[in-house]
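Hi Y.,

Following your request, here is the sequence exactly as I used it, all 287 residues.
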Amino acid sequence: MEATASSAITRAAKRLDGRGWRVEDPVGFNASEDMLIAMPLVRGARVDRLLRPVHRWVWGDFDRRVRKLLAFAEVEGDGGRDILRAAEVTSDPLLRRLYLAHAIDELHHGVLFRERGAELLRARTEPASTLFNGNPLPGGHGLDDVSIEGEADTRLLAFLHVAEKAAAGRFAVYRELVADDPPTRAIFDEILHDEVFHMNYTYTQLARISPRTYRRQVWLARASRVWHRVLRLAAALGALMGAGFLTLLYFVLLPPFAWLARRAAKREPAGWAPISARAEAPPTSQY
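Below is the corresponding structure, written out as tokens. Let me know if you'd prefer a different format.
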């Protein structure tokens, strides 16, 4: 069974041509030739297409491009270490080999992003002048949303499939937006090929170990991913509302009280004020 699955995954990987593929249905998993049903993934996800102007704004600036690449390097490295831990704790020998290959790919992606970001920094000829250098859009795989320790392979595979599919869609959009930067585009071409293979094998292996509930597992992973995004959005909205409230407090509500305090202070006499001595008070008392 392991040999059949490995050879089928290898044949599926060879059919990838860099444009991107997505698994539709692992029907006939035990078959020798049609274990994976794949079709071209030409465009990114609908949300990423809607946010294309924001993506273009992020990647169109040199400083933001460098920050994005370095952020990707950190996320890919963290994801590779998490998947490496998953390879250590799984009891499935085939999954262990696939997780190891997956972790090596993720760590390699981190190196590619980090080297490219460092290369762009060395090529800088002008100081940073961008007013906003942050990144308003999330990136990476979001492996912080799932726990590796004590996690069932079915949930981890479903989560990895959803995360890799989302990453492949974003990278397809990013690849088009960095057409003016051939080295960076080449990195996205290479990584996109790997991401799509990861998306394929996770879906196929999920169907292998859970043939009756793999669709439900994918649905739950998507729902969990959406829920975590809602929580992040709520946290960001709360931070924005808190900043707005504090700004209103400091610059609108406090100034009148400060003005009244200054006005009252002008009516107070300067220096020490005499007080009436009380004979009954002992000389050692502070009152």
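The radius of gyration is 29 Å.

Thanks again,
Q.
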